[in-house]
Amino acid sequence: MDWKAVGKLVLGQVPIVGNLLSHNSGAAMALVANALGVGREPDQVAEAIKNDPDAFVKLKQVEAAHDEELKRLTLESEMAYLADIQSARTREVDIAKYTGGKDLNLYILAWVTVIGFFASFGIFTFVGVKNENSVALSLMIGALVSRFGSVYDYFFGSSKGSSDKNKILTAGNKEG
């Protein structure tokens, strides 16, 4: 078990702590492990949560006692996530600015992912596979579904709006 799974286990009862654990916050991991009286390994924490009937009470006490610190950690986690997205946008704008064109690798990889997703899905659905191959194909489709979602979000989701905003800002800077 990993910290993301532990975070999902906790998320419904203790949302701030669960969210931080899902994002691998070291401080939250330490708080949870100390509150439950176990080591800092995700398996130990998960076992304690499953076996200790008071585990969620202890975690709610941790959340209440460290409310400000946990909210600060949540904010830092979100800021790091947004900085990562902004970094990708800045990279795209810089490539367009310096080369005068788009990053072709981005589009090739996106198309390979989309075509691979639909091809695998079509094979799995319409052609069928032998039982010994179904597990491998299921794993591949699972990975492609995740990547397909990322590609879709990048080109059509909230990332698309951010990208469009960056293009407008870049165009405005060139004119001025």
Quick take:
The chain has 176 residues and is an all-alpha fold. The chain is built from nine helices and no strands.
Give a written overview of the molecule.
With 176 residues, the protein is mainly α. 85% of the residues lie in helices and 0% in strands. The chain is built from nine helices and no strands. Helix 1 packs antiparallel against helix 2.
Describe the SSE topology.
Elements: H1 3-11, H2 15-22, H3 26-36, H4 42-51, H5 55-65, H6 67-99, H7 104-127, H8 131-156, H9 158-175
Helix pairs in contact: 1-2, 1-4, 2-6, 3-4, 3-5, 6-9, 7-8, 8-9
Key phrases:
mainly alpha; 2 domains; 9 helices; 85% helix; flat
| Succession of helices and strands | HHHHHHHHH
Mean pLDDT: 80
What structural class is derived from the secondary structure elements? mainly alpha
What helical percentage do the residues reach?
A: over 70%
Radius of gyration: 22 Å
**Beta fraction:** under 5%
Largest sheet: none
Q: How many H/I helical runs?
A: 9
Instruction: Note the gap between the termini.
Output: 54 Å
Give the strand tally. 0
Residue ranges: pLDDT <50 for 5 or more in a row?
Answer: none
- Overall morphology: flat
Number of domains: 2
